[in-house]
Amino acid sequence: MEIIRLAREEDYKFILEISKLTWNGEDYLHKAFNSWLRDGNFYVLEIDGNVVGTVKLSILPDRVGWLEGLRVHPAYRGKGYGKKLHRYIVNIGVKLCEEGKIDTVEFATHLLNKESRKMAEDDGFKSVKRFYFSYREPLEPLKFEKSKIRMEDIWTEDYIPYGWKFLHKTQDSINWLNENAGIGRIENYKFIYSLQDTEPSFFPLDVSREGLAKIIRAMSYYAISQGKKSIGVMIPQGSEDVLSFLIGQGFESMVDFKVPDVLIYRLK
Ligand SMILES: CC(C)(COP(=O)(O)OP(=O)(O)OC[C@H]1O[C@@H](n2cnc3c(N)ncnc32)[C@H](O)[C@@H]1OP(=O)(O)O)[C@@H](O)C(=O)NCCC(=O)NCCS
């Protein structure tokens, strides 16, 4: 029997298994499990008593339903289950829109994630913004302080990257990030960072060469302290000067920096 239902505590062992088999064991699904259970809108696909897939909708500030946590156990991939879970959660999002609880549904994925892009486009999403994602091994670490952000710290036009989530640039989002995100400061240079993703990634709030160089080392400190082997950074399309600095610092891109490779999708 096949059923999509809300996740329950006893599903953890299945979630841990899926997590271990995804992204070379670097998946954060099992780490997010408890907070996603508490938060709600966390669904699993159960087949004959085994949980083989997951999906989550999180309500972000600015009334956005954010889709994440779409996973199918490798042994069950390519059979249409991903698409079923995706469609199911999109319908939950549409219902929340109709009830006036959110205004839209969004999510982000990598350009090379063909399955995910296919599902998005089939389910009526359109790509509204792109970012560059790049990564490298940690550099020489530099200890940093915790900090808070203000609207004037944000230099992007419309989205604030927080790992692989992207929040609309509003005061509510700033408040949310101050509550939920990592905000670091090294000298006067601040950055937003997330450790929940596969690799700890950051968004620099200062993009001067000196600022970036220090932020990269501060982020390296954080990654090393968490036993992580790489750091990632999100940069909006149109910031090619920042990219050339990152390339000079040994950052790599899965698409050789030819195009911005992270797509934010919004339900039309
Ligand atoms: C992404 C994932 C959930 C897909 O699950 P799945 O059950 O294998 O997906 P489906 O079988 O429903 O396939 C989804 C669609 O992608 C299409 N697809 C699969 N491989 C494809 C490829 N290489 N190129 C283009 N489309 C492809 C399928 O044809 C299908 O579309 P269709 O039904 O119109 O033919 C699964 O691969 C997974 O868990 N990956 C790791 C985690 C991940 O990347 N999650 C998404 C993060 S945004």
UniProtKB/TrEMBL annotation:
Domain (N-acetyltransferase) ranges: 2-146
PROSITE patterns: GNAT
InterPro entries linked to this entry: Acyl_CoA_acyltransferase, GNAT_dom
Pfam families: Acetyltransf_1 (PF00583)
Listed GO MF terms: acyltransferase activity, transferring groups other than amino-acyl groups
Domain of life: Archaea
CDD domains in UniProt: NAT_SF (cd04301)
PANTHER family: LOC100145250 PROTEIN (PTHR47403), N-ACETYLTRANSFERASE DOMAIN-CONTAINING PROTEIN (PTHR47403:SF6)
Protein name: GCN5-related N-acetyltransferase
Organism: Aciduliprofundum boonei (strain DSM 19572 / T469)
